[in-house]
Amino acid sequence: MTGLALLAAINFHTLLFLLFAGLACGFAIGVVLADNVVRMALYLVLSLGATAGLFFLAGAEFIGAMQLMIYVGGTLVLLVFGVMLTAQAPFVSIKTSTGDRVLAGIVAASLLALLLQAAFSVDDWRRPALGEVAQPSATPLGMALLGARVDDPAAGVPATAARSGYLLPFEIVSVHLLVVLVGAAYLARAKRRRTPRAIEVAASVVEPRVARGAATGSASALVGGGSR
Amino acid sequence: MTFGIDACVSAVFAAGLLGEPVSVTHYLVVGAILFTAGIVCMAVKRNALGVLMGIELVLNGANVNFVAFASPYLRGEGAVSLGLDGQVIALFVILLAAAEAAVALAITLNFYNNHATVDIDRADDLKG
Amino acid sequence: MADFLIYSIGLPEWLAWTVMAGLAAFLILNVIAGGALVFIWAERKIAARIQDRLGPTRTGGRFGWLQSLADGIKLLAKEDLMPEGADGLLFRIAPYVSFCASFCAFIALPFAFDFVGQRLNVGVFFVIAVLGLEVFGVILAGYASASKWSLFGAMREAAQVVSYEVPLGMCVVVPVMLAGTMDLVTIAEKQAGWFTNWYLFHDPFTFVIFWVYVTCAVASVNRAPFDLAEAESELVAGFHTEYSGLRWSFFFMAEYGSMFLVSALAALLFLGGWNGPIPIAKLAGLSEGTSDTAHYLVRLLGLANLLGKATLGVLVMMWVRWTLPRLRIDQVMTTCLKYCTPIAALMFAGAMLWQLALPGGLVPGLSRPAGEIREGWLEGPGGRAARPVAASGKNVAQVQP
Predict the structure, then answer these.
(1) What are chain A's domains?
(2) Which of A92, A161, A170, B105 has the fewest beta carbons under 10 Å from its own?
(3) What is the reported pTM?
């Protein structure tokens, strides 16, 4: 095939899929291979952003926008905050021993082989839709979350079958998020410490002889004064 | 230069990639790679936040699978598909992952405040 | 992109799609870049006049309109510095992340009825979601500058932007509820006609929500009284202290782009979008069905309307910046959590109850009839019915007016 004919035969949906899939997988492997935790966070953000693109290509527009807003724009911002708060010099790159990594590599390779074999096994999954498909819309999703199913039944399901709405899981998840909000705020509250951490660390560094001997020395007075 | 591009594009076409439409299998491969990368992250990283990132990757791999099964674009005529249910499952997974990440991060920060490190190999106080 | 049909006759289809996509990207990029140039000049002039002085008066004539160009040339010629302890990759990538987030949100923003990059059914949601991604550029910049003060400034700004997303989302939900869809094109279309059709005048709750939206949007783009991150440059150091030259200008193009975006979003959601206060096109007999030129005239009029409203919003933001004093970080968070969020929630509940109680509007006949508003969810994109309504009687009966 000549150049122009080749270009004309490109399916743009496939091209974009390959682009987003390449980005998602590439950056996921980047997360695994990176040692610097801040770079790992950046690669994860880019990988999940590319996954949102994949969702848009599959017609799940609402889920793609949710992924961008909640996962990337919420959860990962939280994660990056955590990374920044703990990114002191000794913790930014912690290396694992080679033996552990080899073992993990073997397990990962076998798991990947198993999953790929499962992915290629069902013939039905390799036949894509050809021809016109309806425009995606978020309305059936919203109505389903209210308890009313207005979407067409999935192929293979009889039209008169009763389908449940998702009102109850929606309410449960709302209460769950409220509980998580309260719980995380409680866990992360600023606690009153008996001695300030800097002084505790300094006191542990001071030689025991000095700390024991100096009854009225400044070191013990400092430690004694700090604790109630 | 045109010959080089010609050769590349022909090669890619020969591999059957660029011309044919995308099917569920393509998405499942992506999901598998994300899932495996997440598992390796969880197993290998010593930084607690690295383990958290592995968990996020695993959940995303699962989400990609669900969305692929629910998509109307990827299914042939008459094939059984999850339809709306797959999208709703993916939605709830995203919500619950956010909740779980918040709590996990609170625990990690508590650990950091008490032990002055995020290295999970140091979390061995309960070791017998 | 309806224009692609014209080219499809002549050019092969793949080339037509590529050309139109490239054209759309080029136009949007120019809106941001060109807009930034104009807004920087406007800001300097407005700031000057508010402060009782003249502003740039030398470059390019009496009004100094080439000042932005001179600024741009200066920034291009500056030395590209990077602090010693900085992480190279993150330092370099941060401005682009910020700019990409601002630029990508324009993909779903309609400028007139058919002038939209990609008409998404979840348009509003997508725009708000992508706006929230700008915070990554800020955090990366603060961290990669290898300076304690940059990091603190970046964290504060990130906390501010993320906190204000909550009331912003609630404010945006009200017009979505009134229109019945998240599609920005449909929301703006439903406000066609006289200016009383605008959602701003729909009910008092929506009126209050508009002002809460303005506050949250200004805080979200780190402008005016909420610009701690920029102000810290004067006091201590902000997240962009270590950036100079072109990298710095990317941050500011992203900021002006975001300002224009939230103003355009306010115009689309509350102020009628591309519909003017008086329906000139309809009165003059020019409607879409007549001829191609009339078609494009109406579109261009709408485009001018939307650009005018968005520019007005940006100018108001600049005016507020140079008038009000700056808020402290605790005042910023108090405004968000103690004022904006509860007010937004209460007004949302009020708007919902108003819709249930008075579906025809306060003065029946002046606004659009209830049926059109309520049945919005049954329409697919473009206003055509997506499915037969009487499919499953039980479900539909529950939601009919």
Answers:
(1) 11-92 (1.20.120.1200)
(2) A161
(3) 0.84
Q: Are C41 and C56 in contact (CB under 8 A)?
A: yes
Query: Can you say how many angstroms the Cα of residue B34 is from the centroid of all Cα atoms in its chain?
Result: 4
Low-confidence stretches of chain A (pLDDT < 70) are 1-10, 89-92, 129-133, 153-160, 192-228
Give the single-character DSSP code of C194: S
Domains detected in chain B: 22-122 (1.10.287.3510)
Better-scored residue on pLDDT, C117 or A212: C117
Identity of the residue in A84, A87, A148 whose CB atom sits nearest the CB atom of C398: A148
In chain C, which among 101-120 make CB contacts under 8 A with chain A?
Answer: 120
Helix axes A76-86, C134-144, angle to 10 degrees: 10
Using DSSP's 3-state secondary structure scheme, residue C133 falls into: coil
Q: How far apart are CA A70 and CA A62, in angstroms?
A: 12
Cβ contact, residue pair C89, A39, below 8 Å: yes
A153 close contact with B: CB closer than 8 A = yes
Classify burial at A198, counting beta carbons within 10 Å of its beta carbon; exposed 0-12, middle 13-18, buried 19 or more.
exposed
Q: Angle at Cα B18 formed by Cα B30 and Cα C23, nearest 5°?
A: 100
Do chains B and C meet with 3 or more Cβ pairs nearer than 8 Å?
no
Q: What is the mean pLDDT of residues C99-103?
A: 89
Burial of A185 (0-12, 13-18, 19+ CB in 10 A): exposed
- Model confidence band, residue B11 (pLDDT cutoffs 50, 70, 90): low
Give the whole-angstrom CA distance, residue A20 versus residue B76.
22
Tokens of A7: 């270009």
With b meaning 16 or more CB within 10 Å and e meaning fewer, what string describes C85-122?
Answer: ebbeebbebbbebbbbbbbbbbbbbbbbbbbbbebbbb
Chain A residues within 8 A of B43 when measuring between CB atoms: 100, 104, 107-108
**Interface probe with A: pick from C8, C97, C125, most Cβ of A within 10 Å:** C125
Which pair of tokens denotes residue A28? 């996921």
Handedness of CA C272, C273, C278, C283 (dihedral sign): negative
Q: Please name every residue paired with B79 in a beta bridge, in sequence order, or none if there are none.
A: none
Cβ contact A–C (≥3 pairs, < 8 Å): yes
Residue in this structure with the two tokens 């045109």, named with its chain if needed: B2
Contact C136 A81 (CB under 8 A): no
ipTM at complex level: 0.86
